[in-house]
Design goal:
By secondary structure, this protein is α/β, with parallel strands linked by helices. The chain is about 35% helix and about 30% strand. Helix 3 packs across helix 4. Its EC number is 3.6.3.-.
Amino acid sequence: MIEIVDLTKRYGKFTALDSLNLTIEKGSVFGFVGQNGAGKSTTFSILATLLSPTSGTAYINGYNISKEPKAVRRQLGYMPDFFGVYDQLKAVEYLDFYGASYGISQSERSKLIPQLLELVNLTHKQDSYVDVLSRGMKQRLCLARSLIHDPEVLILDEPASGLDPRARVEMREILKELKNMGKTILISSHILPELAEMCDSIGIIDQGRLVAQGSVAEIQQRLQGEKLIIVKLFHELDRAVAFFEDQPLVSQLAKRDDEESLQFMFKGSVQEQVQLLKNALLHEIPIISFSEIETNLEDVFMEITKGVELS
């Protein structure tokens, strides 16, 4: 459905995108993770035929973005990270304008627009002027606009950017519904844990390069099995520190702010983790609790992109 081949974009001596290769299967949701300036928006603008690549190409549902831009635009709905709205239009008029721009007949628009407003939970705001809508409502209206011509592919650049927690939940639920409808979705976000909930796979881009790609579980394996362990103690903190410092699979040992707990990274199997706890108890370390904290995607991102440099 989306195939990217050696896609490169240069501005003079600066390389914004460096030989990107990526394939996204039909009906899947792919999450693009990266810091500001990493190359996400450049990639999306090229796929949406708004920006020409320096070299390489991409295909949307088999259509070449450079040679068949009109056909590509019919296949996809694009939601940029920053978008304009027409303040003097009501929400329903806004969608009607874009529907007419795509050549959709008045009779079809009259049926389609109520369905889109219901999908993005804006039916109750259909007669409200766009400029009085909250940011979250404007985001959902823009998403409805990108769906007006029923595209098979959605490219969503930071759709949850700047939203409050409630609005992010609403946006996430809408995207889940679109996934259930069989849409192929390429989405970028800084809200990494939420991205993981929605995506079949993710890619981490840094300095224009795709530095990691796979399922969330596969990406997490890049940490080579390290786990964050929290140990809560009943006094004798210094003796516990001395014990864990001597353990070969323990690293980054530190006291926590509550002064009754330790944390460390553990590189070992589940069986070795059990043995570590047994040994601690045999040495009469007064442990109240011994727990593993699941590594989140922010930790994964920081670990994978650490030390990445352009050659």
